[in-house]
Each structure stands twice: as structure tokens, then as C-alpha cells.
């Protein structure tokens, strides 16, 4: 077992940290799946409005790779199919029945799983329409199932702001998690890397190569762990998967059903009672925030405050998001701004601009505290990026669309979520992670 100590990064001191007692949100009558959550996918419908579906019924497939389908997270009637420009499917909404019936699949004992081939495990996952739990590096897209991964990586530690504690989530689910590990370990001839904190409840898991990690965010990002454990080389592919999705796969093989339940966090400065909630995948945002907001003028974020997407109360939680964050949209500009002397009790900065008088949590808002301006290379990005990457040089190569230089600077190992702190810390208000995504899309188009 190796230990990784991360020294660069930053843990946001944001208020609204969720209570770890798991609650159930108000009853909700619909769930939805949003095809836009999946990069590079061209969805083709398998259902029509008004059609009855069960939990696990395939809703659509990828025209580029027709064997990859998406399972329904609920049992009921297809209530609405929303199309965007050029008839691109944006939402499939399901009105839930009182009885939630599931499609049944074959069950396996642990001994039977150990005797399955990788092809048999993959066939079971594809038949259940759950292959979309996996994502591929580079590019952080759904993999081509016909190309086996070099390794599979699982991060057993969340360090992003207001995120769920994996230790709490996995308590009571270790058997199902082990089932899932036993199954996915058949999908690669390499290793299944599981990275946790020291003395984790996941330390007893078998059939993995265990590593421990410590340090500030983004230590919990799977991309950072890949970089420090077994970095990606040109031509190589690795898969990643969330621990809660491993549990779902474990239950598929153990019980023969898709269990779309997950534990998410609901927090932020504008939430009255931050907490954990047990929900169904694709839960409506309204069910999570009803009567729980401190004001109406808020920004709702599906995901964490660094990498999530803006949502509305009529929206649904994204497929890969395990947190809902809410911050104030009430922006008040201070007189003479940065020239006004202050302390860290009222102003937040990653650099020693203000006198630090207390270690406290801050009520973050959606304000950028300034407008976009020319990039000032004062090592702000480098101080929060725990990778052997030159972010400033990589940024410039992307803006110049110099693909060869981008590759030489290691963009193949990068993902936009790993650069989110660079965007947050940047005094020039540059969307660094957005530029990284532009570079990845440019490189993927060339490949």
C-alpha cells in the first residue's frame, strides 16, 4: 500500500456543511434522465411519450455505439420527452407509479462471479443498461466497451466542497461494494485501484490495489489520483467509476436488479438545514430544496460549487452528481473594492491579501468579485494544482490551438474538474477549467 501526500490545493471554507444523518426528501412524483449529461453521445430514443417502463428499462441508446443504453431510474409512464435545437433530446421525464417494479436479471454468488470471464461480466452490465456508470480517461467520456481498459480507478475519498462523506455512504453497504469490485475486476487485465483516506472502512476490500491519500482538495479527484499512482501515457485508456455506482453494480449481480438509490448531500450557505438525503437517480431539484432556502434569490448548482452546473427548481439532478449546492445570488459590491482594508473574517482570499484573524466558514455568493482581465502569471494556478503540469503554458497552447504542444504539455492526463480550483483562485477571473475542456474537445475531434 502506497500513501500519497498532496500539498498543493485548497479546501474552501464554505458554510452550509451538510449534517451526516441521512434523511429522506419529500415525496416526488417524477424522475428524469438528461442525455446532455453525457459528453459525445448521440441519443436515439427507445421509448415514446405515454409508454410504460420499469426500473432498468432502456430509454435510449448511443447512435455511435448502439450497444450502450441508458436504464430508467424509475417505474411508471414516460411523461415528457423534451427536445432542444436540431431535435436533440434534452430530457426524458418519468411519472412514477406507486409500485416500483424492476426488470429482473440473473443473480450470482461470489464464487460464480469469480469464475466469470470479463466478456460475461461486460455482457451482464450492457444487458442491464448500466455500462454508463463507467467513464474513460482521457476525455472523461463514456468508454468504448470494445476496448478494454489498462486499469480501473475508484476514488474512495471526496474532498470537493460540501460533498458526501464516502465513509458514511459506504457504512452498511460494504458487502454490495465488494460484490461490485469482484465483478468489475474481471473487466481489466490490469489493476482496480481504490484510493481512500487512512484507516478507511474500505481498507478491508479485496481484489483491489489499495492506496491512501491525504491533503486538500483536489486530492479526492480521481484524475489527481491517476496522475500520482499510474499516470496516463499516449494511447492508453483507463476507466473510472464512482463508489456508489460500484454498489449498484454489486446489487445487480447479487440481487439481479438495478437499484437506482443513492445518497447525496444538500448544502450551501443558502440552505436552512444542510443534510444528506437518500434519493433516486434523477431526483427533481424541487424535492430537495422545498421550504429549505434562506431566500429566493439563490443560485442552485447540480454538483459542487466548483464543478457543478447551474440548475433551476424545475430541473433534475444530473446523472453523475452526488450533491446539490445552493449559494446566494444577492451580489453587493463593496466601496473601493480591493483598496478597502479588511480581514479574513469578512473577505475570502487564497492569497495573503487580508489579515487573517479567524478560521471561520464563509457565506459564499455567486459574485466573481471583479471582471475578466488579462492573465497575470503569478503562480496562482500552480499553487492549487497538484500535478506535474505547467498550467499557464498549457492554457496558452490551447488558446493557440497548438495540438502538438498541448500533447507535449500533458493534456491527455487533464480534465476540467482538476483545474476548477485554478479558475476559483485566478485573480484574472479566467475560466481555466473551461479552457481545458476546449482543449480536450479539440484533441478528441482530431483523434
Describe this structure in words.
The chain has about 450 residues and is α/β, with parallel strands linked by helices. Among the domains are: about 30-95, OB fold (Dihydrolipoamide Acetyltransferase, E2P); about 105-255, Rossmann fold (3-Layer(aba) Sandwich), CATH 3.40.50; about 370-445, no CATH class. Helix content is about 20%, strand content about 20%. The chain is built from 11 helices and 19 strands. It has helices at about 110-115, 120-125, 165-170, 175-185, 220-230, 245-255, 285-290, 390-400, 405-410, 420-425, 430-445; strands at about 1-5, 20-25, 30-35, 45, 50-55, 60, 65-70, 75-85, 90-95, 135, 150-155, 190-195, 210-215, 240, 260-265, 275-280, 300, 310, 325-330. The strands form 4 sheets. The protein has a 6-stranded mixed β-sheet, with helices on one face. Strands 2-16-15-19-17-18 form a 6-stranded mixed β-sheet. Helix 4 (about 175-185) crosses helix 6 and helix 8 crosses helix 11.
